[in-house]
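ingest -> validate -> predict -> emit
validate: passed (alphabet ok, no gaps, 109 aa)
predict: started
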Amino acid sequence: MLAVMGISGAEVILILAVLFVTIVVPAAVVAAIVLMLVKRSSTPVTPVTASAPAAAATVLPGPVQVQGRPLKCLVCGHDTFRTSAPTPGRGDVTYTCAQCGYLHWFMPT
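emit:
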């Protein structure tokens, strides 16, 4: 039948190889990823308490201003933050929400 359609044996093999690569291989990759995630999720995770103060962090006494605007936590809307000493040579600033622990990280401009 394929000969009637003008398709040679080599072309049939090529078509089958393309179908294998586009259908079977991605399914195997997805299966491997799912298996990896299942194994990972069965590993116990130690919870982190967001309310615990970070080491060497200081609770700021007043509202934090970023480019002249008051900073509010993106997660809970709280306006009290802890800050850590900046990393030498980087110039970045971090503010951690004192309520929920969300980290707001600002790079130098």
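Confidence is low (pLDDT under 50) at residues 50-55.
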